[in-house]
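Q: Mind making up any chain with structure tokens?
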Amino acid sequence: MRLFKGSGVALITPFKNGEVDYERLTKLIDFHLYNETDALIIAGTTGEASTLSKDEKRRLYEFTTNYVDGRIPVIAGTGGNNTKDVIELSKFAESVGCDGLLIVTPYYNKTTQEGLVTHFTKVADQVNIPIIMYNVPSRTGLNMKPSTVKLLAEHPNITGIKEASGDITQITEIAKFCDENFYLYSGNDDHILPVLALGGKGVISVVANILPKDIHELCYAYFLGNIEKARQIQLAIFDFIRLLFIETNPIPVKAAMKLLGLDSGEVRLPLVNMTEKNRELLINEMKKLGLL
């Protein structure tokens, strides 16, 4: 995989009449290619992966890699809480040309740290493309400890982590052993600059669905030494980021995209549309940013 630096968008999955809408998906991909997004992450949390069938995921992987045709890396979300299924999906994603895998820690099972090591090692032993681990305890109920990350980073196919614990102490501890072979990515849009300052290589971003160029520029301003520009972008979008999580992701981001004319399609049950009260808050903040 061409390990990406910068803004990897956690791409939404557009639905129409309950099905994945590939026409809308091509338009969204074109939008990101035009606006300098550095990588596409498909079938992740923001892509409503938990409601996608295995067949839908397979088609998403294949369609996206074929359409992108190598222009930027495509990273497939193949995580789950059944190791056998994760291996199966990961091998398929590799077979259709995905550049890498994003694999969340198993949820609900609440395995031990030893179980995490075994799970990720079993998957990594079965593929030949890089794996970015994904730690998001607020969604999974399980935190991957820095000592576990360090142990797994020794595997040649495990090349990075999307860290969304929100714990800056934990993130700093992980940053201590990251190098050119193991990348740290922010998993929270409000932590992009702090993670970059710790040596991170970028972000896997929700807000990049709406502000792709801004997130790319935030990262590259930092990489090129323009810390003040990066700081200004991070602070300017801070309140907007908070509102994108006022309801469960991706409800708000899909609502914001529709307001901008980026047809994001439906959310899939059990998610439902944003409340009118919160939608008004979102509209007001988007007006402040000059988006509406």
Summary: The longest helix spans residues 54-68.
